[in-house]
């Protein structure tokens, strides 16, 4: 594993971190974590040199922190830096924010949270955090030794993102960054700006939730035609690690194969390792992705629960596959015969609640009726 110094104490942190938002589950949707498989995977990751784990109170239906507390028993906790967050979804007052930190220490079975982030900071969420004085709360927790490093994660556009960077003496931040998303949210400029201000930058959604690992999308053909024998996932990860400003890349790996591949790539990549030809290949792949009209849903699930029960990420997965046109019946079959009626796009009443929460700013309430019109056999 490759390591980089992180934070004021120059901690030795693996450049590949384990994102715990997509751990193996018992079945699809909001189903419980498959604790046996997930524990094995996390321990394998740590044994392979990964020492940064990222979670949040809201992941896996609010069960992920307690699960990690159990999974890291037997000496694994001591070998990792644990990152968790203050999610607006679970706090409504200053008192809630204070109590959450105690609860998290308890759930994670630890005396100290290594990395603490304000989660998914939007303008509204920042106003709330300012109103309740959240920075005092977490700085006080740091003085008591309950938190080590303080940061924030955000999917907001660059102008607000840079304001956030300047708003506190943060140790680090977390942004979405991959070769397809270099011109949205914080952008490459945001990455460079944060790093120039001394923040360590942690990357989320490096494979856009898995889309960029697929071999059946047009960008995969571009990679296939190149001289390199790299998978689409490898190309994407290598492109990110080519940036010297990147500290840690979090990937939501959920199998041993993915873990092994990503660890190998982490070791073999780094700033300046891509040639001009490689960068041109990635640029062509980016253009191919953009021209494929895929809905940019990364299945993060932040839009859920839908008040009408629509399984929004599943609807986009089916629709995106349908748009590829490889098998014209597949989307129709999946929509009509392999999805519970209560989860279908046809239940959408365009209330827009999901759009307020979608980090990718997808016009969900416009797309759901379109998906229903396109795929439902009853139309
Ligand atoms: N703070 C925030 O607002 C926020 C938001 C999003 C994410 N995060 C954090 O960032 C972490 C990383 O984001 P992410 O989970 O979206 O990461 P990601 O790496 O973009 O996507 C993870 C998915 O990519 C696929 N994958 C990973 N490695 C692969 C490989 N070598 N070959 C083929 N497929 C591979 C798997 O998909 P399949 O399951 O389809 O196999 C996996 O579930 C999250 O887990 C979470 O901890 C934070």
CATH topology category name of the largest domain: TIM Barrel
CATH class of the largest domain: Alpha Beta
Overall structural domain count = 2
Q: Give the distinct bound molecules.
A: NADP nicotinamide-adenine-dinucleotide phosphate
Provide the spatial order of strands within the biggest beta sheet: 3-4-5-6-7-8-9-10
Helix content: 40-55%
Give the CATH superfamily of the largest domain: NADP-dependent oxidoreductase domain
Number of discrete helical segments: 16
- What form results from the Cα inertia axes? globular
Give start-end ranges of low-pLDDT stretches.
none
Mean pLDDT: 93
Q: How far is the first residue's CA from the last residue's CA?
A: 53 Å
Number of beta-strand segments: 10
Return the string of H and E elements: EEEHEHHEHEHHEHEHEHHEHHHHHH
Radius of gyration of CA atoms, rounded to a whole number: 20 Å
Strand content: 5-15%
Biggest sheet details = 8 strands, parallel, barrel
CATH hierarchy: architecture of the largest domain: Alpha-Beta Barrel
SSE inventory with pairings:
Layout (H helix, E strand, L loop, with lengths): L2 E4 L4 E4 L1 E4 L15 H13 L4 E3 L4 H4 L1 H8 L9 E6 L7 H14 L5 E6 L4 H10 L1 H10 L3 E8 L3 H9 L5 E5 L10 H10 L3 E5 L13 H7 L7 H10 L4 E6 L4 H13 L7 H15 L21 H13 L5 H8 L15 H5 L6 H12 L4
Parallel strand pairs: 3-4, 3-10, 4-5, 5-6, 6-7, 7-8, 8-9, 9-10
Antiparallel strand pairs: 1-2
The site of NADP nicotinamide-adenine-dinucleotide phosphate (NAP) has 28 residues, from strand 10 and helix 11.
């Amino acid at each position: 594993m490759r390591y980089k110094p992180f934070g004021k104490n120059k901690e030795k942190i693996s450049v590949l971190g384990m994102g715990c938002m997509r751990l193996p589950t018992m079945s699809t949707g909001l189903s419980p974590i498959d604790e046996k498989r997930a524990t094995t995977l996390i321990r394998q990751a740590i044994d392979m040199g990964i020492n940064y784990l990222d979670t949040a109170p809201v992941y896996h239906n609010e069960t992920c922190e307690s699960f990690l507390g159990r999974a890291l028993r037997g000496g694994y906790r001591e070998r990792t830096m644990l990152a968790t967050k203050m999610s607006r979804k679970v706090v409504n007052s200053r008192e809630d924010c204070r109590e959450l930190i105690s609860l998290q220490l308890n759930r994670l079975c630890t005396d100290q949270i290594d990395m603490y982030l304000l989660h998914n900071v939007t303008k509204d969420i920042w106003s709330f955090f300012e109103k309740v004085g959240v920075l005092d709360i977490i700085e006080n927790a740091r003085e008591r030794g309950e938190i080590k490093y303080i940061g924030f994660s955000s999917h907001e556009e660059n102008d607000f993102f840079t304001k956030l960077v300047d708003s506190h003496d943060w140790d680090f931040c977390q942004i979405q960054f991959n070769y397809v998303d270099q011109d949205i949210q914080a952008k490459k400029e945001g990455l460079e700006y944060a790093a120039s201000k001394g923040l360590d930058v942690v990357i989320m959604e490096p494979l856009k939730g898995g889309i960029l690992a697929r071999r059946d999308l047009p960008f995969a053909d571009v990679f296939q035609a190149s001289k390199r024998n790299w998978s689409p996932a490898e190309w994407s990860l290598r492109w990110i690690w080519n940036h010297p400003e990147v500290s840690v890349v979090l990937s939501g790996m959920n199998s041993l194969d993915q873990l092994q591949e990503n660890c190998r790539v982490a070791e073999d990549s780094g700033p300046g390792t891509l040639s001009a030809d490689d960068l041109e290949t990635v640029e062509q792949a980016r253009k191919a992705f953009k021209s494929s009209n895929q809905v940019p849903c990364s299945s993060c699930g932040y839009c859920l629960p839908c008040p009408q029960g629509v399984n929004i990420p599943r609807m986009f997965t089916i629709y995106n596959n349908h748009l590829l046109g490889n098998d014209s019946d597949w989307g129709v079959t999946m929509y009509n015969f392999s999805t519970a009626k209560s989860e279908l796009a046809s239940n959408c009443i365009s209330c827009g609640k999901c759009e307020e929460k979608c980090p990718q700013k997808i016009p969900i309430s416009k797309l759901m009726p379109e998906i229903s019109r396109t795929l439902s056999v009853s139309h």
